[in-house]
Q: What sequence folds into this?
């Protein structure tokens, strides 16, 4: 865990420097597409007095000046599968976005959906030396959380304090400056496979870019597609991507759980390709154009030309009814949603005060998905689209881009993480001193 | 979810038959392979480099400047080549200047008297025909203006290769007698020319005395006012660079005041008209003190006056 942990701190500084300089890029590395947005920071919002309330409640101190998407290559399940192909795809997206923005971008904030995220809830408690809580005390409280065994070869991706309790008062957002005796904190820790993150870093570095931040796409799509009261009262965001489906649960504006199902839209496509015996591109096209999850009697009569250029007349003139297509799509969608249901149940989602579920991501655009999801996930399901942010092109406003937009918000208003607080002073030197003594003992 | 009583699987599918002549089977879905080329690593780096502001400035400004400087250095570096280039340029220039369109073959002087005309031609000293570019018109005009007789001079090259010199001559208004020479002055006192003798210009009044040229305008005003006595006028004498004396024949003098001499003269002439003052035997009329004009009689007249009054005086040199 040390590697990513140390680089997180460096990335935070780099991100701050990049924002100071004014330009930062957003890179959403998905299994079906790679999106790159170029953000320009203009400082504080300017059009406040003309607009009344600023757009996005004053969050939009940035503007998107370049946007590009490209077909993803070499990414499966949200993880890099073929390094060279992915690098080329990143290069394509970054180059197009730079061309549109007409600036050079050096810093990139990336998100990815795979790497088997696992959530842990941690709790730490300290006695306050002084009765007033200082930033240093917060750092100590965070450091007092006992590290769970996250397993070999895994790294911490997010470690966010979600709750503070001072004596008997809990649910505090910011305990600093308050008076009490015991400070307790709850922390949400998200661990991922280390090798996946390392591959991603390596891949981005090979494009002459520096990683200024990294996030889980389940988290960032939750930021962008859940509205504020949903984040406050508790909601789950299901980001149905190409290769994996991310699940994140928010309450009190903090993510408290994240997970992913390693199934997504690409699996539906491959089902169609196998079922109808067509190439993947044709299957993708049939899925996006005629796909659905509820068959009606009308669909029996709607025949879809499959086409092909095999040279065999009979094969190339095949037709299939839409009902059959739905018959292929629906079981897979049900499987994905049921898997998501299992994850939500495991997380204890039913105990949350609000049972809102928001479906987003590219695969959530299947017609009739909300009805099917309501049957599997519960009644309070809606389809979510990302927030509108300044300068976002029309083509990038769909639900497939909710993690890109969420990453923009994450870049500008990141939540405090563990590594944003200083290392507690009493630990750092003592340990190094102990280590030095131990080294002496061992060697002489 | 197919209904149990499903009809044929492909109800609309055409029967297998030989395709008609010229029929191209069109597949519904034959998506053209989408072009999605990734930039090569080199192209990517080049684009990033090009988007670097410093590099852009360097390429937009630095490199062109450098190229021009390099070409200049290569072209003008060696002395021999530099000389050759300059010689070639000079040759071209020569060829253009010597074209017949630019040739000047006639010198035309207008507005000058014959003697001045000759003087100007001698002064310009151009060997016609000559190229238009070889004549410095401004310098020539300046040189001509140094002649005293020339008030204004304009030199230009007209159509048909005519170098025309437009002269405005100064008009002599006075003759200024100095020690031994006679100069002509114009109305502003500027020297125009020399005359050999007074009889050459009998129409002009004569002035003399130091600084007479500076008060030429005043002198002319006095002469104009002295019209009734003009036949008797011999000249004006500048006294002490301050005032004028009007000299008439019979050595009569009218001493005019320094300021307002014309008015004083007019008063005198009025007196003369009434009393025939100047026709009498007086030597001088002193008008310098305006409150008390004085006349000086000649010796004979004084003697006669005294005799008439019965005064007997002792004769002396006065």
A:
């Amino acid at each position: 865990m040390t590697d990513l942990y140390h680089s997180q701190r460096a990335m935070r500084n780099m991100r701050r420097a990049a924002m100071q300089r004014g330009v930062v890029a957003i890179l959403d590395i998905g299994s079906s597409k790679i999106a790159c947005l170029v953000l320009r920071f203009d400082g504080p919002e300017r059009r406040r007095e003309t607009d009344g309330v600023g757009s996005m409640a004053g969050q939009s101190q940035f503007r998107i000046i370049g946007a590009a998407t490209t077909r993803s290559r070499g990414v499966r399940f949200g993880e890099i599968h073929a390094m060279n192909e992915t690098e080329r795809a990143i290069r394509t997206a970054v180059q197009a976005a730079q061309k549109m923005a007409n600036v050079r971008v050096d810093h990139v904030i990336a998100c990815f959906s795979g790497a088997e995220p696992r959530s842990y809830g941690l709790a730490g408690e300290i006695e306050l030396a002084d009765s007033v809580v200082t930033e240093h005390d917060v750092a100590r409280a965070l450091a007092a959380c006992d590290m769970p065994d996250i397993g070999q070869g895994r790294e911490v991706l997010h470690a966010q304090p979600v709750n503070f309790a001072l004596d008997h008062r809990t649910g505090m957002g910011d305990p600093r400056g308050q008076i009490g005796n015991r400070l307790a904190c709850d922390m949400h820790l998200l661990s991922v496979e280390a090798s996946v993150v390392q591959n991603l870093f390596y891949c981005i570095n090979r494009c002459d870019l520096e990683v200024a931040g990294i996030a889980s796409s389940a988290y960032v799509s939750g930021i962008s597609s859940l509205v504020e009261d949903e984040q406050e009262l508790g909601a789950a965001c299901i980001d149905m991507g190409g290769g994996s489906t991310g699940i994140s649960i928010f309450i009190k504006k903090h993510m408290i759980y994240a997970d992913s199902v390693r199934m997504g839209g690409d699996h539906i496509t491959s089902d169609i390709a196998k079922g109808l015996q067509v190439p993947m591109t044709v299957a993708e096209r049939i899925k996006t154009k005629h796909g659905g999850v509820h068959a009606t009697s009308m669909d029996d009569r709607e025949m879809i030309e499959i086409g092909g250029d095999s040279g065999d007349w009979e094969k190339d003139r095949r037709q299939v009814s839409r009902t059959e297509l739905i018959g292929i799509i629906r079981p897979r969608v049900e499987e994905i949603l049921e898997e998501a249901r299992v994850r939500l149940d495991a997380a204890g989602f039913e105990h949350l005060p609000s049972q809102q579920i928001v479906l987003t991501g590219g695969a959530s655009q299947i017609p009739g998905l909300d009805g099917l999801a309501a049957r599997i996930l519960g009644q309070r399901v809606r389809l979510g689209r990302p927030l509108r942010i300044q300068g976002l092109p029309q083509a990038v406003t769909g639900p497939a881009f909710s993690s890109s937009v969420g990453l923009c918000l994450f870049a500008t208003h990141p939540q405090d993480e563990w590594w944003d607080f200083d290392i507690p002073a009493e630990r750092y030197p003592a340990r190094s001193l102990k280590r030095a003594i131990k080294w002496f003992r061992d060697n002489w | 979810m197919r209904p149990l009583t499903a009809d044929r699987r492909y109800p609309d599918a055409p029967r297998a038959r030989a395709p008609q002549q010229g029929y191209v089977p069109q597949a519904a879905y034959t998506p053209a392979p989408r072009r999605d080329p990734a930039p090569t690593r080199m192209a990517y780096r080049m684009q990033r480099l090009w988007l670097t502001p410093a590099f852009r400035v360097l390429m937009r400004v630095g490199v062109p400047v450098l190229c021009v400087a390099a070409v200049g250095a290569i072209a003008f570096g060696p002395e021999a080549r530099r000389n050759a280039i300059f010689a070639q340029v000079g040759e071209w220039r020569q060829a253009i200047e010597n074209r017949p369109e630019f040739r000047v073959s006639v010198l035309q002087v207008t507005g000058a008297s014959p003697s001045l005309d000759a003087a100007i031609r001698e002064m310009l000293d151009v060997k016609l025909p000559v190229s238009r570019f070889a004549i410095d018109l401004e310098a020539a005009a300046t040189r001509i203006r140094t002649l005293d007789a020339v008030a204004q001079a304009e030199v230009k090259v007209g159509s048909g290769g005519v170098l025309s010199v437009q002269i405005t001559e100064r008009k002599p208004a006075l003759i200024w007698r100095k020690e031994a020479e006679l100069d002509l002055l114009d109305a502003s006192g500027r020297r125009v020319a020399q005359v050999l003798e007074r009889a050459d210009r009998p129409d002009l009044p004569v002035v003399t005395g130091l600084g007479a040229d500076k008060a030429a305008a005043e002198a002319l005003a006095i002469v104009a006012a002295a019209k009734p006595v003009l036949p008797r006028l011999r000249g004006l004498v500048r006294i002490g660079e301050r005032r004028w004396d009007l000299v008439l024949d019979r050595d009569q003098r009218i001493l005019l005041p320094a300021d307002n001499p014309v008015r004083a003269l007019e008063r005198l002439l009025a007196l003369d008209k009434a009393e025939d003052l100047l026709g009498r035997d007086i030597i001088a009329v002193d008008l310098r003190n305006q409150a008390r004009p004085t006349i000086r009689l000649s010796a004979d007249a004084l003697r006669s006056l005294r005799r008439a009054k019965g005064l007997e005086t002792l004769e002396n040199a006065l």
The longest strand of chain A covers residues 154-166. Chain A touches chain B through 42 residues (CB under 8 Å). The first helix of chain A runs from residue 2 to 21. The CA atoms of residues 124 and 144 of chain A lie 5 Å apart.
